[in-house]
Amino acid sequence: MKIFASIIIASTLFTMSSASFAASHTAVPASAAAATSLPMADAEIRKIDLENKKVTLKHGEIKNLDMPGMTMVFQVKDITMLEKIKSGDKVVFTADKVDGAYTVLSIEKAK
Ligand SMILES: [Cu+2]
After folding, report:
1. If you measure from the C-alpha of residue 93 to the centroid of ligand 1, how many angstroms do you get, rounded to a whole number?
2. What is the CATH number of the domain that holds 100?
3. What is the pLDDT of residue 28?
4. Pick from 27, 43, 54, 93: CA 20 to 30 A from residue 70's CA?
5. Ion ligand 1: protein residues whose beta carbon lies under 5 Å
6. Is the pTM of this model over 0.85?
7. Which residues pair with 56 in a beta bridge?
């Protein structure tokens, strides 16, 4: 009987640990995590400057940068990301500080 009880305890512990393992892994959204694990932010394109690899965004809160909504200029990591986007478009994007400059790392049209 003592052995039986310890099997139950062991299997309960196993179930609990695999449940928390699953929870910690589902916390990362699979689609957004493809290129980067940064949180997506909303924005509207105000101006695209391909020559200087810059984009002006009227953006919502950017959680990872601890930044409230505002209109500002970002560097763009790769201008080919801007090919399908034009001024006035609603987008979702990720941004981070790269070499001291706020830089858009991914951007796509909002669905
Ligand atoms: Cu800003």
Report:
1. 12
2. 2.40.50.320
3. 45
4. 27
5. 67, 70, 72
6. no
7. 47, 73
